[in-house]
């Protein structure tokens, strides 16, 4: 049997057009290459189809991840692998590596990073958020001040319910920097409502420089603080990071050199932190 080159050419054009019509653009683009490889390597029909569709699936996955990451508004590219545990003796490495398995998402459990500035709270929260996005779930990163401002604006514009639905949506919500600035008037109650509606449904990661015992003071309202802590801590991992500031490491090194030159000993690193509440 002879193949008619004209009908073969038409078939190829049709195939490309079908792929384009179905919006399988990456497959359409790679059709030629895959057919070449199929011919040169003697691939079976199944193997050739598998290769073609694999190209489309990978491209779709990459697009979806990029869109989840755009939505997430992460403040940096960090992953757990970027975190230098040796430089931060104040964090429990096993605890963080366990969190990085993302088991906590299945229990809708929360994570609190508590510690002074510069110890890596934002970096670790971001790394867990990135891992979650890479695992296929929706993530949103915000600061406490920004969340309060968004809710305040939504209330003024009559979009309160939409705003609450927005913060209830993501599988993981990161609220960074609670306690750095006093929350504006209705900020504490907005934050409480966000935490409350996510309670037992989906996970929230919170970073704060305020020790849990001092929350009442940080919120101005002891009742709201207690109610919020109640929900946050009911099912939570608390990661205390009580170590040296990574940000100040370079400065520390310079000052240690200067001090050594002046005949003083360098300052010792601070101690351990880390506890588990469930
Ligand atoms: P915090 O939120 O506790 O104030 P950050 O997470 O913002 O601290 O960390 C401050 C800076 O130092 C960031 O650029 C972060 O990437 C870096 N950093 C902090 N801890 C580490 C660490 N253990 N390994 C690598 N980089 C770190
Ligand atoms: Mg921070």
Structural class: alpha/beta
What ligands can be seen in this structure? adenosine-5'-diphosphate, magnesium ion
Poorly predicted regions are 266-278
Strand content: 5-15%
Radius of gyration, taken over Cα atoms and rounded to an integer in Å: 26 Å
Helix content: 40-55%
Q: Given the C-alpha coordinates, what overall shape results?
A: elongated
The CATH topology of the largest domain is: Rossmann fold
Largest sheet: 6 strands, mixed
Give the strand order of the largest sheet, numbering strands 1, 2, ... along the chain: 2-3-4-1-5-6
CATH architecture descriptor text of the largest domain: 3-Layer(aba) Sandwich
Number of strands: 6
Give me the number of helical elements: 12
The structural domain count equals: 2
Describe this structure in words.
InterPro entries: AAA+_ATPase, ClpA/B, DNAC/IstB-like, IstB, IstB_ATP-bd, P-loop_NTPase. Keywords: ATP-binding, Nucleotide-binding. Pfam families: IstB_IS21. Residues 259-270 have a biased composition (Low complexity). By secondary structure, this protein is of the alpha/beta class. The protein folds into two domains: 5-71, no CATH class; 80-240, P-loop containing nucleotide triphosphate hydrolases (Rossmann fold). 55% of the residues lie in helices and 11% in strands. It is built from twelve helices and six strands. A six-stranded mixed β-sheet has the order 2-3-4-1-5-6. Helix 9 links the parallel strand 3 and strand 4 (203-208). The longest helix has 28 residues, at 45-72. The chain starts with a helix and ends with a strand. The model is unreliable at 266-278 (pLDDT under 50). The structure holds adenosine-5'-diphosphate (ADP) and magnesium ion (MG). Magnesium ion (MG) binds next to helix 6 and strand 3.
